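agent> step 3/5: call structure_predict on target 'SMI1 / KNR4 family (SUKH-1)' (Amycolatopsis pretoriensis).
agent> reason: downstream docking stage needs a structural representation; sequence fetched in step 2, passing through unchanged.
tool.input:
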Amino acid sequence: MDWEPWLRKWSAEWISTAEPGELDPAVTREEWLGFAPASEDDVAAAEARLGVRLPPSYRQFLRCTNGWRDAGGFVWRLRDTTTVGWLRDLEPFWEEPWEDFVGADDGTCFSRGLLVSLEADAGILFLDPGDVDESGEWAAYSLFSWRAEPPARFASFTALMEDLYAEFHQMRKPAGETRDGWDAEVERARVAALAGDVGLAAGVLARAEDFGRERATLLRVQILLLSREWYEAGMLLGRLLHPSFLPAGFLTDPLFTEELLPYLFDDHLRGARQGRMSVLQGAMIGERPEIMSLISENEPRFSRPGEGFTYGNPEFDEPVRRARAAHQDDPDALWAAILAALPLWRPRTPDHIAPVALLADPVLAAAITPARGRELLTTPRHP
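tool.output (status=ok):
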């Protein structure tokens, strides 16, 4: 990692999103979230005090800036060479509640950990000298008690900082080359998905989501639904409908009203039978008049499973309907007919990459196993 240009970019992006009075005057004056670099003597003194040589990426970071402000959304200050120290000495209370998640015969990452965060929102960042790779990098961890999740492990201090940078983008969405670069990657993933390269598309979209690109979520949820990864797809649909995330115009977009909404109503009916909360029920929590109106207006339309919507453009919808009528008791024949009709399918909108509406019909959904869903996704479709 070439720390200085990357951290300069991070600083400029953070400053561009800051509220009046939010920033330390020194940050505004110097356009820098960091501090003066640590000297080699400063780093050597810290290593002598700690009794270890620091891992390369963290050492290089300190030589660029001796500490850091605002790492991600929930870490306000990183330690410098005079304050970095062992977690067991500085904040020993973290180990007991979490040791079962990271236990080992030779101690835990907590008992060995080097605490690098100074101020955070009920959380810590630390490095583990007992988990070292071939290049000498120590594994890094982040842990926030309010997330109710085990510590998140990263391969190195660099990887940890990259994750915190993505978190900053997800929360503040600064303009600039990083955002524009990820938007270009999302478009590349969309084209790849339509070409059948679902593996490439899914990986790019997942990383773009880390950077808060809403379009990536809209594209990836279609892949997850047809891959029958219901839980994660439901989480993303819930996010898309959350008031803090809801993309502009989403509730009236044909991709939502004609593809995702029929599926959501079918999921709602299944949830009622299974005694679980549906995505739509979750979206109704709180004062959500737009969601209540959406449901009341469309409930008559989707009152009977598999009705009230089309499977896609007429050229695709018609042969699928014929196949359903002819093969509703023969899932194998029904699937073969769906696959044969796929070359006729066309996207409803630029962000439509797969015929998700098929899953809103229980008869068709039963014919689309996870393996068949992947087969559909890996079949090139009309751009």
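agent> step 4/5: record observation. Strands lie at 68-71, 75-78, 85-86, 114-115, 117-120, 123-132, 138-144, 152-154.
agent> proceeding.
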